[in-house]
Amino acid sequence: MELTTPGVATLRRDLDQTARDAETADVALAASGDGRAFERLYRTHVARIHSLARRMTGEEHADDLTQDVFVRAWSKLSTFRAEAAFGTWLHRLAVNVILARRTTLGTERSRYDDSENVLDGVASRPHTAELSLDFEAALERLPDGARQVFVLHDIEGYRHEEIADLLGIVPGTSKSQLHHARMALRQHLE
Amino acid sequence: MLTTVATLAALALAQQTDTTVPVRAGARLEVNNFGGEIAVKTWSKSAVRVTASHSSRDRITVDASDQVVRVKSESRRGPSQLVDYEITVPAAMALALTGVYTDISVEGSEGEITAETVQGTVKVSGGSGNVSLKSVQGDVTLEKARGRIDLSSVNETIKASQISGDISAETVNGDITLVQIESGNTEATTVNGDVMYDGTMKEGGRYRFSTHDGDLRVSIPEKSNVSVSVSTFNGDFSACFPVQLVGKTKHRFSFTIGSGSGRLELESFNGDIRLCRPGQLAKDKDWRAKNKDWDKDKDHDNDQEEE
Amino acid sequence: MSDTWTNRLSEYLDGDLPATERPALEAHLQGCGDCRTTLAQLRRVVARAQALDDRPPTADLWPAIARHVGVVSLDARRARRRLSFTVPQLAAAAVALALLSGGSAWLMLRRSPVSPASRPTTTRSPILTNVGTYEANPRYAAAVASLERVLAHGRSRLDTATVRVIEKNLGIIDRAIRDAQSALAADPANSYLNLHLAQEMRRKLELLRQAAALAGTRT
Asked: Cβ B96–C84 below 8 Å, yes or no?
């Protein structure tokens, strides 16, 4: 029995489409109560959701928030419309869950600290390369407001108008918070 | 001269590999064979022996670590050809066996087993813990296993006997036959086929048997305590023993046997449902008269079947 | 050192600076080395943010989620059993199959008959609201359609014998679906028929999914 293989380029393109189509099926199955299908969806998307939760609220709460997101997603699956990409829908749901929880997570830092030196109180000396913090660790140390705007804008790609809606601020504040976050993170590029 | 050439040709096609590696307790076996056979037997040594018949273009690799022994074939040129494996393992070793055009058989295992193929049969004797056997075009047969059993075919039959544990059996175009079963939780469903269950009905147990186009034959031991609900659209219900039917319609009703602590759901859209005592199902004269060709195999490979 | 323009650099970088102010800022940049440095740094911060990798949690969170998600049927309970093997190699092997026959239309996939004529006339029985919407659910139809596309794409990756088997069994399930729908049309509140239809539709989706996995490779 002689066997041949199809061209690699065709395979790769078709595999992406296959993955998307298989995900659509999994969403349908999960919406009908199939826990195994939902687990497949979880495995595909957990890294992104967990990273979002971690960057928005810190390492400590990321696990709990991630669980909350998926539990909420399970119960809301019936509202998911097939036309949208599941990942996009899940992501937006995650942002909502995370933001809704931020008031209850109780951090001591002031939310919208206008100071550029927000990271100076921490161990690193701004001009000493070997002591500079890992970028993500530096991100975690920003005040909540600046960090959330930075994550939503520069990492997740939301626009200022959308961020303003999500966070309950005006676009002008979003822009200035973004600028402050970027200025503070300058010293912590590897 | 001709003889020599023939001999050389035969050698080129049929090569033998024979490798034995030591293993620790807790390691599992993983075999992936695209086409051919995987036959697993057991012994009492702490070692895995792999013998294989294959073409000279293929090289069999046996990769052993503390957790897993991986067996597969690699081809020097192009894809692998057919390989027939015979592998001997410690009885407790967990098995993960996969293939496409592959028949898989296991004998004497006392460990967890996962066996999946597409065009091939799966025939297992033994297994404990999680036992999951799947084929698309091929019969799935299991005996003498205990634990959480998951059997699935698409176009062929499922047969299980002498099983103890929770069972889930599913096929589309095939019969499901479960005999000598000791279970508190069994579900068997097919679309185009019969289901037969001859086993226990335990206190608080849950049993569900369903088909679209086919008959259900289920045994209920004497002195069982089970609530039975029957649903059929186009079929008849009958029992070898007297039952008191309570229900709204001819096609959906329920009744209680004893205290009714267990639950039995019987659903057949287009077929008959018959209840009998253990051991009586096969001898059930009424039923056999109606289903004269019950012991002939459905012709599954015949493409001229009308749909 | 910061000046009035420093605070506008992010806006400028993002293209949010009003057109009227841009020439003035750009003129300033030409003369201000510090500002140019800052701008470059801001660019690097943005680039760094966009290059961040996602990483999963260190612990497996699924068991806790699964507990919340809960279990009602044996099907779901079966799904909870840990299958130790997900057959990625099996699917990969299936990809390597040869084209055994050219030509004619491969799968004559009969679409799930969601035509108005066969739709149950009255709505669901009250307990089974899910089932009632299931059949008319655009998501189900979309999933079936997309899987059929996958299979059509992947026809070259499955041999004809497997294709025949899958096609035949899809036909068997489709026939069962039609039977159930006809029966439901006459007795729409029948909970057995509703459940049976849902079960067969789910079975179809599972088989399609299984076939799609054989025809492609899940990452």
From this structure: yes
Kindly indicate whether the domain formed by A109-190 is annotated with CATH number 3.30.830.10.
no
Q: In the numeric block, which tokens belong to residue A103?
A: 């008031």
Q: Specify whether C174 is located in the same domain as C96.
A: yes
* Closest Cα in chain A to C128: A32
Same domain, C94 and C184: yes
Portions of chain A given CATH number 1.10.1740.10: 8-106
**Chain C residues within an 8 Å CB radius of B30:** 85
Residue C69 lies in a domain: no
Domain presence at residue C44: yes
Domain annotation covers residue C36 = yes
Domain residue ranges of chain B, discontinuous segments joined by +: 157-293
Residue C170 belongs to what domain range?
Answer: 87-215
Measure in Å the smallest separation between the Cα of C51 and chain A Cα atoms. Answer: 8
**Interface contact C87-B116, CB threshold 8 A:** yes
Q: For residue C49, which residues of chain A lie inside 8 Å, CB to CB?
A: 150, 154-155
Looking at the structure, do residues C136 and C29 belong to the same domain, yes or no? no
CB contact under 8 A, A1 and B81: yes
B 6-35 residues with CB below 8 A of A?
35
Do C95 and C174 belong to one domain? yes
Residues of A in contact with B78 (CB under 8 A): 2-3
Question: Nearest to residue A146, comparing CAs of A128, A121, A122, A163?
Answer: A163
The token duo for A154 is: 């520069």
Angle in degrees, CA B99, B105, B107, rounded to 5: 145
Contacts of B307 in chain C (CB under 8 A): 168, 171-172, 175
Same domain, C35 and C105: no
Beta bridge partners of B185: B166, B206
User: Is the minimum CB–CB distance between B137 and chain C shorter than 8 Å?
Assistant: yes
CATH 1.10.10.10 residue ranges of chain A are: 109-190
Return the DSSP state at A133: P
A189 touches chain B (CB under 8 A): no
Give a three-class secondary structure readout of chain C: CCCCCHHHHHHHHCCCCCCCCHHHHHHHHHHCHHHHHHHHHHHHHHHHHHCCCCCCCCCCCHHHHHHHHCCCCHHHHHHHCCCCCCCHHHHHHHHCCCCCCCCCCCCCCCCCCCCHHHCCCCCCCHHHHHHHHHHHCHHHHHHHHHHHHHHHHHHHHCCHHHHHHHHHHHHHHHHHHHHHHHHHHHCCCCHHHHHHHHHHHHHHHHHHHHHHHHHCCCC
**Nearest residue of A to residue B81, measured between CA atoms:** A1
Chain B residues within 8 A of C78 when measuring between CB atoms: 150, 168, 187
Q: Which residue of B has its CA nearest to A3?
A: B79
Asked if B78 and B12 count as a contact pair (C-beta separation under 8 A), the reply is no
Do residue C27 and residue C111 come from a single domain? Answer: no
pLDDT in tens, chain B (307 residues): 444 444 444 444 578 899 999 999 999 999 999 889 999 999 999 999 999 998 888 889 999 998 999 999 888 777 677 899 999 999 999 999 998 889 999 999 999 999 999 889 999 999 999 999 999 989 999 999 999 999 999 999 999 999 999 999 999 999 999 999 999 999 999 999 999 999 999 999 999 999 999 999 999 998 899 999 999 888 888 888 888 777 666 677 888 998 999 999 999 998 899 999 987 876 665 555 555 444 444 445 443 333 3
Interchain pair A27, C143: CB under 8 A: yes
Fold for A8-106, please state it. Rna Polymerase Sigma Factor; Chain: A (1.10.1740)
In this complex, is the C-beta atom of C200 within 8 Å of any C-beta atom belonging to chain B?
Answer: yes
In a domain, residue C37? The reply is: yes
Residues C147 and C91 in one domain: yes
| pTM over cut 0.95 | no
Number of domains in chain C: 2
Q: Do A39 and C130 touch (CB under 8 A)?
A: no
Same domain, C22 and C127: no
Chain C partners within 8 Å of A136 (Cβ): 52
